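DM from R.C. (forwarded with permission)

"hey, sorry to bug you on a friday — could you get me a structure for this? deadline for the figure draft is monday and I only need the backbone to look sensible"
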Amino acid sequence: MLVPCRRLLAVLAIAVLCVAGAFAKKITVKVGGTGVEVEVPDDFASLVESRLPEIEATLAKNNVTKEAVEKAMGKVNEVYGTLRENGFTTDRPFTVVQNGLDDFASDLRPAIANAQTQQNVWAEAWIGNLVPGFHFGAGVNVGVSSMNINALKDAALALGIDDAGDVPDKLVFPTITADLRLGGIILPFDVGFNAMKVNTSSLGRFSADIEPVGFDFFTIGGDVRWALIKGTSFLHPRVSVGAGAYYTKGFVSVSDDTAEAKLDFSATTFMLNTQASAKILFLVPFVGARALFAKTSVDWNVRADWSKILTNDDDTGLLKDALSWGLLPGRFSGGSSGFAVYPQVFAGLGLDLFVLNLTVSGSYDIVSQILSAAVSVRIAW
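My reply, with the result:
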């Protein structure tokens, strides 16, 4: 009976220590010129260690005493032992926030590349020459692409942004592009240019449906296509190969009155593609494939008033002290960058109605498994 009892006592001891916030790391902090050993929850201990010189300078500037530091950190550890009781779904909010934003950054990279290639899609694999022939077109392209934001929601909930739980795990977001395509001069090629600006705050119902999430980004780009088959025979079959480049910059954020997580991103993408089309009366079916070579950078930043987030108590003075000194980090950041190749297949149907050109297209990213679609309306000649 002694062995089981000892095991039971050990388990109970561990449970008591956990509740008391004993999963902490002892860190030596200089206070008043003397090293003071304080317990910091290991959930954010690395953030404190990385900023010790800055924290110690703040403590010295404000003449903070050893007793004040120990008292404030005692309160922090006490609160950490009751997070579940205060409605938190995790007892490691800093870890969940950092992992969630890192994971979302990974999901964001292919989403950016897929949104870029929904722009300036034309049904005809080659529109003809500007000289001779005078072939050109310009109009508006409206597309949709999907983005998995489940990881962003996890981070937001760990920051106490409860409304984020109502946002769908997979977000289908719009792209609205102005584009222009000009036929080549003498040689069988054409060139396209496009520009896009999207801010969800101006999208009315869509903006309301995804609150408190928002994003804002712009894209510019261009491409050139060379006709291998010019389409002069029956059904006007045309085959082209092409290359293009796109640049995108913007941000995604989720916030409320007490916290904000913001991810700033930029992406440079080079594209190689091939496309085939035919013409049956006024219908222009087409198919193609693309390879996207994308270099993407995502940097995230968090600001959080943990004195309001971590506890339901009204007495948050000690937490505010720890926050103001940096011993409870109110701001932290991270990010990643990388290069990836995204193979896509695409297809669609165009309607050539005199000077009005309509195109419906869809694409599928084979690696990232992202579906995208677009509808274009243009004046074309």
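R.C.: lifesaver. The chain has nine helices and 13 strands.
me: no worries. Confidence is low (pLDDT under 50) at residues 6-22.
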